[in-house]
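Teaching assistant here, posting this on the class forum so everyone can see the example we discussed in section. The complex has two components, and the goal was to see what a joint structure prediction looks like when all of them are supplied at once.
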Amino acid sequence: MPIAFEELAGNITKVLLSGRIDIAGASAIDMPLSLVGGSKKAVIVDLSGVEFMASLGLRSVVLSGKAVLSKGGKYVLLAPQPAVEEVITTSGVDELFPIFRDEASAVAAVS
Amino acid sequence: MTTAPEDLARLYPWLDEAAAAAEVGEPLLGRIHVAAEEAVMNVAMHGIGLGRNEVINVRLLREAGAVALVVEDSGPEFDPVAAPAVAKAVSLDGPGAGGVGLRLLRHYCKDMAYHREAGVNRLVMRFAL
């Protein structure tokens, strides 16, 4: 599965995405991310293991993040690889969900 | 390919083979993957519809100084080249993902051309070598 979860101290949920979030990958993460969006209020999406992501995968991330933000929560992105970061910044998604390089900064941002 | 999910997933390995034949490697291949996914899924989700037997034709052509990705379909007319520009930032209040795909297409392609003839949409996306 290209998605896994870790519960961190302070009720922070870390979502670990990995591999290729392409058509099949986006289909696999869509429902779990939707559940995160509907139930969590402090979320870090770790993208360090993602080799490829385009608009389909990004759409799942955005919809999940918007659900968290809409109920007053916090949702940030962690350590995307350069090609994935280009997709994120080109689309402007980082203006809604900031990117952090290290986990400590991401944790501080959602605490 | 049709818009059946298992067929759509063949897009990337097919692109890899076509790119190898056209002597196109990374990092350009990764950019072609991003644009191809957007163009094909736009047709599948908003044009023909998912899970249909109508065919989307995809070709990769080597040109002088560029690579052209051609996507043809017989769905409803849609010209992404003429579609209005969208604001860069994704809005919390706006619908869905807010035009992310169109922004990506315009960023990754050197140029795009659209033509509709005899009920067929033809989108040509060019990438600089």
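For the discussion questions: The first helix of chain B runs from residue 5 to 8. Chain B touches chain A at residues 5, 8-9, 11-12, 27, 30, 33-34, 37-38, 41, 87-92, 96-98, 100-101, 103-104, 107-108 (CB under 8 Å). Think about how each of these relates to the inputs above.
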